[in-house]
Fold:
Amino acid sequence: MLTVVQAFDRTPMTEIETDDAAALERKLQAADRVFRDREGWLKPHRRIAILRKLALLMEGKRDHLAMQIAREGGKPLPDAIVETGRAIDGVHNAADELRNFAGREIPMGLSAAAENRWAFTTKEPIGIVAAISAFNHPLNLIVHQVAPAIAVGCPVIVKPATTTPLSCLEFVALVREAGLPEPWCQTFVTEDTALAERLATDSRVAFLSFIGSARVGWSLQSKLAPGTRSALEHGGAAPAIIDRSADLDRVVEPIVKGGYYHAGQVCVSTQRIFVHSDIADAFTQKLIARVERLRTADPALKDTEVGPLILPREADRIAQWIEEAVEGGAVLATGGKRLSETTLQPAVLLDPAADARISTLEVFGPVVAVYRYRDLDDAIRRANALPTAFQASIFAQDIDIALRAADRLDASAVMINDPTAFRTDWMPFAGRRESGYGTGGIPYTMRDMTQEKMILMRRS
Structure:
C-alpha cells in the first residue's frame, strides 16, 4: 500500500494499492492486444466524442480537482485552479487538433520515373505509450501525456509520481466514465524503480513520454528497446536578463511569478537573474520588497502565494544550497528561513559564485540568484554557460537589445518582457541539450505519437 500525504503538513490523505510485476504484465498484454486488433481501433469521431465528454466531466469536478492538486502537490489553490482550467482546455485542444490532423500529398511526376503516380501519407498511431509523470503539475502533466495518446489512438499506460498519484487516478477514472475502454488507458502505480524501468523499456512499448529528472530520463533513454521512440522533459536553471532600458515597475511582478510560482518547483522556473549594473540596486530593492510580501502558507488557503516543497528532504537540500552559497560569498538579501518541515521562506541571493550549486544546477525551490553585468554579450555568455537550456527571458524596452538577446540566448523559447515560466499548452515546449529530448505541447506530442505511412498508386 502507498500512503499519500498532504505536501504542506504531511497529514495522511489516503492509502492506495500499488501494482506489482504481475499487474504490469497484465496491463502490457491488455494494451498490446487492443493495439494489434486493427479492426477494434477507435475511429476519430469516437475519440473526439470521448475527449469532449471527458472535458465536460472534468468541468463538473473543477473545484474538487483543484483542491486535490493543492493538497497532494502543495500548489497554492489559486494556481491549482489555473492548472485545472488548463487541463480541461488541454483535453479540448487534443480533440480540436484531430480536425486538422492529417497526412499530405507527396508530389509525383517530378521525374520521368515518377510519372503516372499519385502518392499521399496517412498518420497511424505509433503503438503503446508508456507515460512516466512528475509531481509538480499532477493533473495537467498527465493530460499532456494521456490526452494526445487517446486522440491519436495509442493505448497508454501512465505512471504518476508516487507523491501525487490521486489526480492521475481520478483523471483516468473520468476517462473511463467518458467511454474509453480500460485497455486503452491504464494506470501503473509503483514505488519500485526497477518496475518503472521495466515499463519504460519493455519491447512492446513504442513510445516513452518521460517528465522528471535528467539523471533518470537519460538513463531510461539509454535502455529503451530498439525502435522505441521517446520524449524527455527535464529542467534547467532558467536565466532572465534585465536590461537598463527595462521598465522596473513592470519587471518585478513577472520575475517574482517566474521565480516563486509553485515554490520554484517548475522546470522553467526563473532562477538566474542578470541585471545591468546601472539599475541593479533599484531592481534589487524592488525585488526584495515584493518577495517579502509573498504569503507563504497552507496551499489550500485562497490567498496563499507560495506553498511547500514536495518532500522534507527537498527543503533540507535547498537550505543547504543557500548556506553553501553564502559561505562562498553570496549575500542572502532575504528569506531562506525554515518555516515548517516542507516550507521555506522565499529567498533572494545576491552574486553567488559562478561555481556555486545555486549558479550551476536546477534548484527547484523558492530561491532566485541576482548577478550584475555591464555588457549584454557577457550576460548572454553567462546565461548560456550551463549544459542545460530550456526557456529564457529578456526584459527591455530597447527593441534592438531585446532582439539581440532573443537571437543569441541558447533556449528553445525566449520570452521578451515575460517570465521564463510562461507557457500555453498548445505551444512547443522543449528542453535543449541536457534539458530534454523532443518537443512537448499537445499538438506536437500528437505528432510524436504517430507515424506516417505513404500510399502510392500507379495509373496504367
Summary: The chain has two domains: 2-234+435-458, 238-424. Residues 155 and 184 are 4 Å apart (CA to CA).
